[in-house]
Write a structure and sequence with these properties.
Mean pLDDT: 81
Structural class: alpha+beta
CATH topology of the largest domain: HSP40/DNAj peptide-binding domain
Number of domains: 3
Low-confidence stretches: 72-98, 102-111, 362-366
Number of strands: 15
Order of helices and strands: HHHHHEHEEEEEEEEEEHEEEEH
CATH class of the largest domain: Mainly Beta
Radius of gyration: 39 Å
Amino acid sequence: MAKDYYKILGVSENASKEEIKRAYKRLAKKYHPDLNKEDHADAEKFKEINEAASVLGDDKKRAQYNRFGSTAEGFGPGAAGFDFSDFGFSDFGFDFEDIFDTFFSRGFGRHSRGPRRGADLRYDMEITLEEAAFGAKEHIIVPRMEKCKECNGSGAKSSSDIVTCDKCNGSGRIQQTRRTPFGIFSTTTSCPKCHGEGKIIKNPCTKCNGTGRVHHDRKIEITIPKGIDNNNELRISGGGEAGVNNGSPGDLYVVIHVKPHEIFEREENDIYCEIPVSFAQAALGSEIEVPTLKGKAKLKIPAGTQTHTIFRMRGKGIPDLHGYGTGSQNIKVIIETPTKLTKKQKELLKEFEKESKKRKGIFNFL
């Protein structure tokens, strides 16, 4: 049966790392073997406490334990890389705070040396439907970090001002060894003097203050391809921030937002609009002028057209972004009912109504 590590440390399952740390320190002092040499159970308890702490103090192991009741590596004194039975505990004058931090961090400091790639940047850009359909070229201003031209990104006044760090001898790492009740711990951390670079700058560049990069608002030309749509991204290689230590620059991602159009609505590569026509135009048929993305065009309305009829104009829509043809423009005709009529119009409509009723009567009779 899996051990209940929360119960062993006397903490809840929602306990923070700080709560686990305090519980560990309290129990470790209570059950330390050198303080309880006559009681074998205390030594076993001490191992159990360390076993529990090694799991609950590690985010990855704790997550596995919470989910499965065990971890992929297995638990026990050896799981953390220590066998407590191999060490003597003759000196109890140590700092549990330091031991805990070393125990859970493993003491491996990460250091960064050499060139590092610059950060990617995002720019949100608004365009018109016409620009989305037919493409365009636009200029944008992007604030970013760029390589310092004064020092060519080195951060130093001259190349001779870059020297090997005398604290870590160019390794970028400092190794420290400490004897503890749990054994001898060797920790490797980034060199505090050169910050893991292995090099230091005696005389930094005055323009970039030794960083190798300066802030600049860069004007960049953006080519908008035909058929682009909302939330599509354009990747500008090298358009991001300059790298650190002459590392490669990041990329610029331009996110497209197409502004609403006053006439058309877009659905994929097709566009839609509504056009009003009169009753006479719909009944008798006519040729009307309609707007398109490229100006005006003629549309034939056949006699007897009903309201909400949709006419399709092929090739008048949006070109496909990948070159697979062009969408259509779809026009829905809306027959308008006049709200004000002249005396003559009313007489003509009444006459029309009489004739309509006569025709209807003939058809009913048949």
